[in-house]
Design brief:
Shape: elongated
Structural class: mainly alpha
Oligomer: single chain
Number of helices: 2
Length: about 90
């Protein structure tokens, strides 16, 4: 049923058995706070695109609220990249 909350236990390897997807290739879309699972590639792609757009919008709102200018973002990113490389 749509909207129904399903509870599944994982095994020791973190696997979840969902009988509806038995013997099918499934697509998992990381939503940040959970996953969207489907056996339809086109649906997974649409959900992934919407999730990416929503994340980008929230990120930009946060940056705007913090009054960070693009130059500061560049400096922060460059500093982190150089730290990771060395």
């Amino acid at each position: 049923m749509i909207g129904q909350i399903l509870i599944r236990n994982t095994d020791e390897k973190g696997r979840i058995v969902i009988s509806e997807f038995k013997k099918k290739e499934v697509y998992l879309v990381d939503l940040g706070s959970g996953y969207f699972i489907t056996d339809k590639k086109d649906l997974a792609e649409k959900v992934a695109e919407k999730a990416s757009n929503a994340f980008e919008e929230e990120f930009l709102k946060t940056v705007e609220e913090m009054s960070i200018v693009p130059e500061e973002i560049d400096q922060i990113v460059n500093k982190e990249i150089s730290r990771k490389v060395t």
